[in-house]
Design a protein that fits this description.
This protein has helices at 16-19, 67-87, 89-92, 98-104, 199-204; strands spanning 2-4, 11-13, 24-27, 34-37, 59-60, 113-123, 126-135, 141-142, 145-151, 157-163, 169-170, 175-182, 191-197. By secondary structure, it is of the alpha+beta class.
């Protein structure tokens, strides 16, 4: 069958089999105009159109995918990479150059670091905390972030503070004294919760 572009009048010969019984959207190879083409009411078997295969055929139109179809695979890949970096951070954290990248993000190994001999002194609205961090491993470690959480009698959080890492090193099998002073505690604190870790560890706890 012959079809004609309604914009530039270019004529094409195309098989009814390609168009199909439901019709098809085609695009002019000359001016890129698109239009809907349908076959005659007679069946393809009853009326077979002969055409020259050497004649240029119009480009079959393929609807463009929505933009989010292109973004979804990239987003999923980034999520998989991010989750992998989190769950395998303990193994990657000591490998170069991953170690440098992790440390710049505040993520470093805290394996073997322990809190010891903490003493808490309270005076009116002020709480003083003193104790030690022990490095029980055979490697030097970076002083971790220290999180202080005060709880009332109902175990509700009334104060939360995280002291950032000083980036100071704790030698293998050595102990480092630490201290903190919490002031202006308005509610009555009954419990003190201490935790140490890198930024990712404290975030996930």
């Amino acid at each position: 069958m012959r079809i004609t572009c309604g914009k530039c009048q270019a004529v094409y010969c195309i098989s009814e089999r390609v168009i199909g019984s439901a019709g098809r959207i085609v695009k002019c190879a000359k001016c890129t105009h698109t239009w809907m083409v349908t076959t005659p009411s007679t069946s393809f078997a009853a009326h077979k159109t002969h055409y020259d295969y050497k004649v240029n055929l119009p480009v079959l139109f393929k609807p463009a995918l929505p933009h989010y179809f292109k973004i979804i695979p990239i987003t999923l890949a980034l999520i998989i990479i991010f989750v992998g970096l989190i769950f395998f951070s303990e193994k990657l954290i000591n490998l170069q150059p991953a170690k440098i990248i992790y440390e710049k993000c505040g993520i470093y190994s805290t394996k073997g670091l322990l809190l010891n001999d903490f003493v808490i002194d309270t005076h009116e609205n002020e709480i003083a905390v003193n104790g030690f961090i022990t490095n029980s491993s055979d490697e030097d470690k970076i002083v971790p972030d220290i999180r202080y959480i005060l709880l009332n009698n109902n175990k509700e959080v009334i104060f939360r503070y995280t002291k950032p890492s000083s980036k100071e090193a704790i030698k293998a099998n050595q102990t480092l004294p630490i201290s903190a002073k919490i002031t202006n505690v308005k509610a009555k604190a009954e419990y003190l919760q201490l935790d140490i870790g890198n930024k990712l560890e404290l975030l996930l706890r």
